[in-house]
Amino acid sequence: MVAYTARAHTNIALLKYWGKADQKLIIPTTSSVSLTLNEFYTDTTVEFLDDLTIDEIYLDGVLLTPANSKKVQHLLDLVRKMADLTTFARITSFNHVPTSAGLASSASAFAALAGAASKAAGLNLSPTELSRLARQGSGSASRSIYGGFAIWERGHDDLSSYARPIDETVNWPIQLLTVIINDQPKKINSSNGMQNVVATDPFYQNWVTHANMQVNPMLKAISDHDLATVGAIAEANALQMHAQNMMASPAFTYLTDESWQIINLVQSLRNEGIVAYVTMDAGPNVKIISKPTDTTIITEAIRAAIPAATITVATPGPGLHITKGLIIND
Ligand code: PMV
User: Ligand 1 atom closest to Cα of 140?
Assistant: First the structure.
């Protein structure tokens, strides 16, 4: 069968997905809103081949063991079922998400896999169907089908839980300054972290109610191109999500002293009139929602506080792109 290659970009949630209502289908408890980033992406080629006896999965040139690629195989099984196929596949994937960037690569990885695998299997899925498929690899991947701002509507079952675009070509000044203070793999992965919170945090239902109430104000702020309100809601949502982790049993946190140093520094910059807000995911690194014209002032302040931090500017990026043929790894 013909090989297809797909490129998908990472996204960062401005309103977080932090908990599943259905663990098997990956239906979230809240709707989430994200911005897809231009700088970081995954290229994945999929080819279904008659002579294979198992799925052969290469990530950045390294062959993964079956035990290390269960989520990939699960997504391929879903594709095979849809296409009525029994053939195994060769998957070649390259992550252009620097491991040191501290950015989740699962969003771009599973969006690219959904795109390339479905096409290679002879399917012609709509963006909504691709989003539902990617969701079943990694929840946040449902949003990486689209460029710019996207919302993953939580829905209540497989058919109703998918992302849709809000504003795919962002033509107003917004960027995420990513501040990498630690590039070590996280100790508690997002799945285990969020599941611990859902199961043990006595305040979790309050968080769900509140987070879902942040959706409409966030959509309005995006449509108004109102950076300060987008940032303020995103920062509150992120800090509230991280607060849930400390209310779980056992309590845990992804944030370190250095994360708090950056969070406090951004608050001080704000007091000086700079429009800058933070968001953090399942790790200690901080992303600063800001304007391109403030890059120098924010960067200098961070370098003065934490000289070892790596700072990358990330701007809005495009949605999933699928092409016929093998990977071109540039
Ligand atoms: O898609 P996952 O299972 O990697 O979970 C993502 C969780 C967060 O990054 C913390 C939030 C989000 O909505 O992306």
Answer: 1
> Best of 12, 17, 37 to mutate for ligand 1, by most ligand atoms within 8 A of CB?
17
For 83, residues 6+ apart whose C-beta sits below 8 A from its C-beta are: 118, 121, 122, 123
Q: How far apart are CA 31 and CA 16, in angstroms?
A: 8
pTM across the whole model: 0.96
What is the phi-psi region of residue 267: left when phi exceeds 0, alpha when psi lies from -120 to 50, beta otherwise?
Answer: alpha
Q: CA nearest 230: which of 217, 213, 241, 212?
A: 217
The protein residue with its alpha carbon nearest to ligand 1, atom 10, reads: 281
- Residue 98's pLDDT is 67
Query: What angle separates helix 227-247 from helix 190-200, to the nearest 10 degrees?
Result: 70
The binding-site residues of ligand 1, defined as CB within 6 angstroms of any ligand atom, are 13, 16-17, 32, 104, 106, 138-140, 190-191, 281-282
Integer Cα distance of 308 and 296 in angstroms:
17
- Dump pLDDT digits (tens) for 281-320: 999 999 999 999 999 999 999 999 999 999 999 999 999 9
Å from CA of 107 to ligand 1 middle: 8
CA–CA separation, 246 and 269 (whole Å): 27
pLDDT in tens, 75-110: 999 999 999 999 999 999 999 986 655 576 899 999
- Distance of CA 271 from the midpoint of ligand 1 (Å): 30
State the closest ligand 1 atom to the C-alpha of 16, by its place in the atom list counted from 1.
Answer: 13
Would you say 208 and 237 are in contact if contact means Cβ atoms under 8 Å apart?
no
